[in-house]
TrEMBL record:
One of its GO terms (biological process) is oxaloacetate metabolic process. This is CoA ester lyase. It comes from Rhodoferax sediminis. Substrate binds at residues 75, 131. One of its GO terms (molecular function) is lyase activity. The lineage of its organism: Bacteria, Pseudomonadati, Pseudomonadota, Betaproteobacteria, Burkholderiales. Its cofactor is Mg(2+).
Length: 287
């Protein structure tokens, strides 16, 4: 799997939100162990602080190193909101300086995504955040839009949009999560990013949610507190044993010159080789 646009975002397992109006938290977030950091101009910023938050974002961005910028996303305000176009203008400046990606909330329209892509320039990736019934209906179009590298699930907003009252395991959202995974696969995107766990202190719940994400085919999860990061990384990154198995499969496949072969007294064919490649691609240090 090879991606030229925002490779660190494509490989990331944990995405930690930071409010744009709290710039002192950005460096801490980048040092928290999170694979990627989302500086939020949307929900986390009060209405009367939107303009100053954009300026604070630009100021802190100028202090970041190139590798840190490679791990940074900005969540802008949604299309139709009064701050949207000003957000795009600021993000275009940051994209020219190495901003990796923009998270687009309330993603429901390929046309709106194309407008964002054109406004910010071709060097910056997009991560649409699906949060509504309308977004679910257009998943394939969103996934196929220019500069999109991953889809993300806004699970709490989605529940609110549909009036759902999900249980702790969110079993009601199984078909929605599957739809995100299927759309990502059809568009040849990296595995999607799952939504947040509302509790910041219940480690068992965070772990259960992150393990569910992996079982469901997600490759990453949104985090709202640094305490969630280590749990999410542990649940979603391949284990040492899994990586060892996958690398041995790929090495044996190369030695066999393709076709079906045996490893550890078990048959290995093309689907197993593809699974092994996906495991290696999911490692944090994958090229």
């Amino acid at each position: 799997m090879s991606y030229s646009l925002a490779p660190a975002i494509v490989r990331a397992h944990s995405f930690l939100f930071v409010p744009a109006n709290r710039p002192e938290r950005v460096a801490k977030a980048l040092a928290s162990g999170a694979d990627a950091v989302i500086v939020d101009l949307e929900d986390a910023v009060p209405l009367d602080a939107k303009g100053p938050a954009r300026d604070q974002l630009a100021q802190v961005f100028s202090s970041l190193t190139a590798p840190e910028r490679d791990r940074l996303l900005v969540r802008i305000n949604a299309a139709g909101m009064p701050w949207h176009e000003d957000d795009l203008a600021r993000v275009r400046e940051l994209a020219a300086q190495g901003l990796a990606a923009v998270m687009v909330p309330k993603a429901e329209s390929a046309t709106a995504l194309a407008h964002v892509a054109a406004a910010i320039g071709a060097s910056c990736a997009l991560v649409p955040l699906m949060e509504s019934a309308a977004g679910l209906a257009t998943l394939d179009a969103l996934a196929a839009s220019p500069q999109v590298v991953r889809l993300a699930f806004g699970n709490l907003d989605f529940q609110a949009d549909l009036g759902l009252a999900c249980g702790p395991d969110e079993a009601e959202l199984v078909p929605v999560r599957l739809a995100l995974v299927l759309a990502s696969r059809r568009a040849a995107l990296a595995a999607p990013i799952d939504g947040v766990t509302a509790s910041t202190t219940d480690e068992a719940q965070i772990q259960m949610d992150a393990q569910r994400s992996r079982r469901a085919g997600f490759g990453a999860k949104l985090c709202i507190h640094p305490a969630q990061v280590a749990v999410v990384n542990a649940a979603l990154a391949p284990t040492t044993a899994e990586l060892d198995w996958a690398r041995r499969v790929l090495a044996a496949y190369a030695q066999a010159g393709g076709g079906v072969f045996s490893l550890d007294d078990r048959m290995v064919d093309a689907p197993v080789v593809r699974l092994a490649q996906r495991v290696v691609d999911g490692a944090p240090d994958s090229p």
